[in-house]
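Hi everyone, sorry if this is the wrong subforum. Our group has a chain we'd like a structural model of before ordering constructs, and none of us has done structure prediction before. Sequence below.
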Amino acid sequence: MAPGVVLVTGPNGVGKTNLLEAIHVGAQGFSPRTRAEPRLVRFGASAARVRLAGAEASTPFETEVDLEPPTAKRIRLNGAQLSGGDELRLRLSALAFTPDRLAVVKGGPIVRRAYLDRMLGRLFPARAKLPSDYARAVAQRNAALRQVRLGESPLDTVAPWTAQVAALGAELDRSRADLANALGPGFADHAEALGLLDAEIAYPEEGLSIEALEARLQRDVERGTTGLGPHLRDAPITSADRDLRSYGSQGEQRTAVLALVLAEAELLAERRGEPPLLLLDDVFSELDAARAEALVARLPRGGQTVVTATERAGVLEPDLLVTVTPGIALAA
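Answer:
Right subforum, don't worry. Here is the predicted structure as tokens:
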């Protein structure tokens, strides 16, 4: 489809969100709502397939994602088999807002770390493997610590892994801080337009050194785990110095996530030269008219946005209207 806004309407439960989810699976190789891939397969079926055709930077593409749990999913781009979803995401860019994404604000630190690390791969492709490389180094160091604790290895066997964890951890910490700093201004600007004042996502760089890890080596041996590093850090999301996880209303949390998605889209457009495909599920349901108008005004220009709603929103004039009834989608 040509660039523009597609509005998908229909009553609750007819499959609007499933449509957005399928588009995201076809563009990114994973669901924005769940990591349990068997849940993506229709009840009573043993497999699912998503085919998606479109254009990225005016270059046509076709993707095919096959899901047949418990076997690994298969992803093809223009007929060529890809190694996995990471490779697809380096080629195509898409962002989704769904109610499930409120976990970025409402969830624990692990959710925000994962959010930053996924975005890191999108914005800085050369650093895409850094989070997994660091996680493997920490796992190897933890295994060495447990062997020392059990008396199966001498203490100095931990040292090589300490050096690797320190090097990768410092680089990951710096990269996350760079990302938070890049997202911050756009996030605050979009949040303010949507009624959330003084919004901030914070991740100050702390670094990680061999000396800091060695200073707590005995404690790490006793616990069998590495107790320092970016695998334990948080990126709190606040408004007027209030942590929105603990003190934000549902509406404020929703607005924060939406502002983050808009800020991500802005950064991706700057770095890739074209806005990402934007998928917004049930985005108007908790916005008053003024905030809904502000959102429409901030949708990326020159790209494509797919929005779902139970009825046609008065503030949005779509380029294409799709009406969904059970089992049928009609475009106008």
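For your construct planning: The chain is about 45% helix and 20% strand. The first strand starts at residue 4 and ends at 9.
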